[in-house]
Amino acid sequence: MSTAVARRILADCVAGNAHPALALVRLLDELGGYEPAAALIASHAPPGAPATAELERLLSENREVCERIVWMLRNHPAPAPFSGSVEEEIASVRRFFDQAVKADEVASVAAYSLGSPELLAECTREIADLFELWSLLGPYRVALEIGCGIGRMQEALAPHLAEVYGLDVSPGMVAAARRRCAGLDNVHISEGSGRDLAGFPSGKFDLVFAVDSFPYIHQGGPELVEGYFSEVARVLQPGGDFAFLNFSYRGDVNEDRDEVEELAEDWGFCVEVDGVHPFRVWDGTVYLLRRLGR
Question: Considering only CA atoms, which of 155, 267, 144, 154 is closest in space to residue 206?
Answer without folding.
Answer: 144
